[in-house]
């Protein structure tokens, strides 16, 4: 009986050891497995970062070329519109910057509202009164009726003869007075005169002229 117990105990020791060895190996393998699982996660997140950076740059540069080509065309059309508006006012005997019209208003009315002129002198078929602040000169006859309204606005100085002709066409008459070339355009009962000195080649002033009122006599 003792012999059998010793024999049974002898076999139980290696059997236990044999069971423990694979368990320890499996434990080692399970402890090692989580290390490679963490490595793929940063690799996937790194690929998303560079894709967001380049997208805003092309959209910012896109509008830049679109504004350049239309510059000169817009300037020409603006000049043409302004000169045509000058001719439209001339058909009513008016210039921009003056509420008083040729053939309609009397110079007495101008003095009542604007005060005495800065300069007044006899010229041609009547008297001419200049208001420096308004850059307006009125020509009036002995009956005080206004027959000529002139504007010396600085905005006129940007136009040359080519610009004027492109906007208004060829003038009905071209005359030279000293160094001034005068382009005359019909405007209903009035004439629009565009005066360009040779020294500058740019418009110096315009005149809205009423031929029927340019008489050196008393009204009535």
TrEMBL record:
Q: Supply the alphabetized keyword list.
A: Signal
- The stretch of residues making up the signal peptide is 1-32
Q: Where is the composition biased (Low complexity)?
A: 32-69
Top-level taxonomic group: Bacteria
Region called Disordered, residue ranges: 28-79
Q: Which PROSITE patterns match?
A: PROKAR_LIPOPROTEIN
Has the keyword Signal been applied to this entry? yes
The protein's matches in InterPro entries, at most eight in alphabetical order, are given as: DUF4309
Q: Does the keyword Signal apply?
A: yes
Protein's name according to its UniProt entry: DUF4309 domain-containing protein
From which source organism is this entry? Paenibacillus lutrae
